Amino acid sequence: MSTPVKAPKPGPQAAKAQPATPKAPKPGPPHQSTPAAAPVLTGAQAVVKALEELGVEAVFGIPGGTILPAYDPLLDSVKVRHVLVRHEQGAGHAAAGYAQATGKVGVCMATSGPGATNLVTPLADAHMDSVPVVAITGQVVSTAIGTDAFQEADIVGITMPITKHSYLIRDAAEIPRVLAEAFHVAATGRPGPVLVDIPKDILNTPAPFVWPPRMDLPGYKPTTQPHGKQIREAAALIAESRRPVLYVGGGVVKAGAHAELLELAELTGAPVITTLMARGAFPDSHEQHLGMPGMHGTVPAVHSLQKADLIVALGARFDDRVTGKLDTFAPEAKIVHVDIDPAEIGKNREADVPIVGDCKAALAAMVEAYADPGRERLKAWWETLNDLRERYPLGWTDIDDGLTSPQYVIKRLGELAEEGTIWTTGVGQHQMWASQFIAYEHPGTFLNSGGLGTMGYAVPAAMGAKLGRMDRPVWAIDGDGCFQMTNQELATCAIEGIPIKVAVINNGNLGMVRQWQTLFYGQRYSNTDLGTHHSEDSPRVPDFVKLAEALGCVGLRCDTVDEVDEVIRQANAIDDRPVVVDFTVGPDAMVWPMVPAGVSNDEILYARDVRPNFDDEESI
Whose CA is closest to 506, among 536, 538, 544, 469? Predict the structure, then answer.
């Protein structure tokens, strides 16, 4: 066991999760006279001053040549805390974790060239999952742009497809306006990442600092209020449907609409399913919740979509992991689609009632418009779904290999955790098990990489989430493959006093890839053995306990099922430094249920060679 590297620094004031609302000025004419009393600041000073005015509490980043001017005034800021990460990818994921846990805009910073390109993955990740992040990057001096100068990369061009907007600042006087716009764009409408690229000479150039600036966004006017006629049509369809389902996506969480969702669900009596990005938007304990849909969703959730006569999609995008083979998806269902992004409506599935608007406003309006015809029409629907829920519960079959079942470990982590614990995951089997075997009662408590599926997300995202919510325990559930991609950020956590907890579900393999090789590649395990299990022939490489201690953390190991509870309790009791627990689990556990890629959801497998039969009580 190691000693703390450094006493924890005070983190930013913990705040309740809420929709992102930065203190950005209101849009208005960009052209205004400079007040006589406006202070003259360098571009670098203007960056830091603007961040302070925008209420930024934390910036995750690494200094380098072109961004270095901004780091000098940052040293003097008493409002903005900088967290020195070990890799820019960690900065981006930490900013996203902070944003998802707090509802505020996350901020990361990097230098030009490789520093900026190392942010590409977390920016793409935030774009896919609609997370409000502002990335500030340095750029080579203006006169050198386009000359292939040292550490030059066209980061604006590179990130254009994976951000809501990307800026290249050419005038130091524009810095306050551009940063105000960046925060406004990132946090409003469908949230997402914005990049601000600033040449080094602009950071060194003095200019008047005008605050608040006038934002110039003439083409940016997100529709938040839904159309009344469409709301009434949606409410009427719900009232007449006999097999409705509320298909809930991450947009409900982003809108802070969980209370309105609960009200509509209870008013209508319709079953509710929550996607990977919406876990916690509707309480798992609620009798109307059927679980998660999709490739590894529950049998009743998948069946409810396939057999529905009405799907009310709320902040969801009908992605391929939910629909399976698209032309076989929900063949009898009418579609009500609510989304703040009009580009999502009709993109994958045509909507009978398209509703562009904020989910919170739309759900409240539906509640008001709904005329309850009674629940008798839903009786047969619920009998079917409850029968499936009883016949095909989530569970697992222990494998007789002498090792602990990973599902059991994750289930016990959830059961022994404090109320309000925030969970992050990497990507793969452990991510699916975490979505299945931990109960989520509140939004903003399950953070993961849904759309992009980014391995290495868990540890830095947990770091950002913990910094934003020092009042909450934060557990990262990671795989031994994911963990080796970004575990260097544990050094950041140790030095900065950010006491996250990490459960490494160590099955010795790239688990999800191995599962596919087992099922679809004749058990030919090409390049999936990671060597992280001890054997007679080789030691653990790496030894995660020793690695944790080397990074300034407490390292624990659990090798048997009898040790699981005690080790989890030990980890939960430590709150003054990061903790890593190496859970040695079996390599052959699989995620079930499963809809194989490219097939209809009707082909869902409950377990290997076990396909639910929706017509009678036998399985084939």
Answer: 544
Over the range 146-180, which residues count as b (16 or more CB within 10 Å of their CB) and which as e?
Answer: eeebebbbebbebbeebbbbbbbbeebbbbbbbbb
Q: Kindly list the distances between the CA atom of residue 488 and the CA atoms of 113, 135, 460, 485, 523, in Å, as whole numbers in the listed order.
A: 21, 21, 9, 8, 33
Q: Tokens for 559?
A: 């090798």
Please name the amino acid found at residue 98: Y
Sheet of 81-84: strands edge to edge? Answer: 81-84, 58-61, 106-110, 133-139, 193-199, 165-168
d(CA 606, CA 619): 9
Catalytic residues, by residue number, are 88, 150-151, 200, 512
135: three-class secondary structure by DSSP:
strand
What digits encode the pLDDT tens for the residues 365-382?
999 999 999 999 999 999
Beta strands of 126-243 (E only): which ranges?
A: 133-139, 165-168, 193-199, 206-208
Kindly state the average pLDDT of the residues 336-353: 97
How distant, in Å, are the alpha carbons of 246, 293, 332 from that of 435? Answer: 19, 11, 28
Alpha-carbon gap, residue 302 to 345, rounded angstroms: 21
Give me the helices (H) in 54-119, please: 68-74, 88-102, 114-117
> Fold for domain 40-208?
Rossmann fold (3.40.50)
Answer yes or no: are the C-beta atoms of 265 and 207 closer than 8 Å: no
Q: Structure pTM?
A: 0.93
In this structure, are residues 175 and 53 in contact, taking their beta carbons and an 8 Å threshold?
no
Q: What is the pLDDT of residues 346-356, one digit of tens each?
A: 999 999 999 99
Q: What are phi and psi of 487, to 5 degrees?
A: -70, -10
8 A C-beta contact, residue 486 and residue 459: yes
| Strand 272-274 with 244-248, pairing | parallel
Cβ contacts of 521 within 8 Å, gap of 6 or more: none
The answer to whether the Cα torsion of 582, 588, 593, 594 is positive or negative is positive
C-alpha dihedral (522, 523, 524, 530), degrees to nearest 10: 160
Which residues belong to CATH 3.40.50.1220 in the chain?
Answer: 228-391
* Residue 616 buriedness (CB in 10 A; 0-12 / 13-18 / 19+): exposed
How far is the C-alpha of 483 from the C-alpha of 493, rounded, in Å? 15
Token pair listed for 375: 């629940």
| Number of neighbours of residue 617 by Cβ within 10 angstroms | 7
The residue assigned the tokens 């007789």 is 400
Q: Which CATH class is domain 228-391?
A: alpha beta
CB neighbour list of residue 63: distance below 8 Å, 6 or more residues apart: 71, 111
| Averaged pLDDT, 575-595 | 96
For the CA atoms of 66, 70, 75, 79, the dihedral, rounded to the nearest 10 degrees, stands at -140
Number of neighbours of residue 531 by Cβ within 10 angstroms: 14
Tell me the CATH class for 406-584.
alpha beta
Question: Which ranges in the chain are annotated with CATH 3.40.50.970?
Answer: 40-208, 406-584
pLDDT range class, residue 619, cuts 50, 70, 90: very low
